[in-house]
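Fold it.
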Amino acid sequence: MTTQNAATAAGRPDRTMLLVGGTDQHLELAKALGVRVVMLQHPDKVNPFQSGLADELTVVDYTDWEAVVPVAETARAVWGFDAVVSLTEGGLDTAARLNEHFGFPGTRPEVSRRMRDKYLMRSHLAAHGKLDMHVERVTDRASLDAFAELAGFPFIVKPTAATASFGLIRVRGAADLDMVWQRIEELRGRRTDRGSTLFTVDELLMESYLDGPEFSVEGFSFGGRHVVVAVTEKLVSDAHFAELGHALPARLSPGDHDRVRTAVTDFLDTMGVTDGPTHTELRLTSRGPVVIESHNRVGGGRINELVEAAYGIDLLGYGVAWPMGLAEALPEAPAARAAACTRYVLRDPGTVTAVSGAEEIAARPDVLVAEVSVRPGDTVRPLRDNWDRLGLVAVTAADTDTAVALCERLTDEIEIEVAPAAAAQERLEAAV
């Protein structure tokens, strides 16, 4: 049963939600349930659409607990909300703390915190005898040398709390260590400078490099019971950490699919997740599935649209309806009725001079979305992480092979003309 049908079946009772942060889409989904929505929005994220649609909107830095508590208590006294919900990374911990503060059910604050903090996640797994890699905090320059001795090369350095592959570094050998330390010093103490700016890079960790293809698992937990809705194949490159795309259902053998599903449900049990959407990233290594990280939210990169196209399940819709008691729990994993793929638009570094073709592609019946995020005059940076991508195309097709091939072809048909960066132009002229 879809969330929309579930809400209709349950009626439209007199209920109120406190929504912590979120996008226009999150707010629209909540209002579509027929509930009142009191919204707490960060000063950097508020917009007129949300101000007009929410029943009440308060501007507050919702990552600041001391600032949020009195605002939430006042809202509770005035509106008497029934649940606190967040579907955005920066609001997850605050929503969990507020649910506990007001005595509402849901995933507990300590669970939400260790899902977001990668070092806490690894420490928790280690305490339960389920850590299968080397992990240490970065403390000083010497800690890099010590970890290299322990884990060998290559190994990974990453912020303990950030998103979209921001700040990830692959340390390939001893010759990289001084450069890596310089990059660490640049990152420490500053906010992420692209995409979401709500996170500060305070700590970094080092962990073993994992081999094998990469996947994500899109799930939803209903009172401690985890349903794996989809296994998504990640399209990646060893040259950088930017994701090139997503495809589902993942092209896995039945045995590997079962191993991935079992590994993720065991992970979620160990972490203590009870309710809501999850997006768990892992590699299918030579020794089996190993979780890289997980989030108690829906995955980005239009994964929700892919899941809905292939399985008929709106995970974001469930994310707002389940806490309000307006969705029935999924009895089991759904069967795929189609396939879907997202592919990102990439170009060489330089300056954008012309953009065309996205609107024509978006009009196709097999295209879920086609969009470009750059305009003439914008700078195309070297590809390092997800924020350097220029747009995307998402499609649906009968099977995954067809969806991937179609998506790659349509992505190439989007015209983004880029004048080479000055250095590249000089090298080109010199070569000629």
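The CA atoms of residues 123 and 129 lie 10 Å apart.
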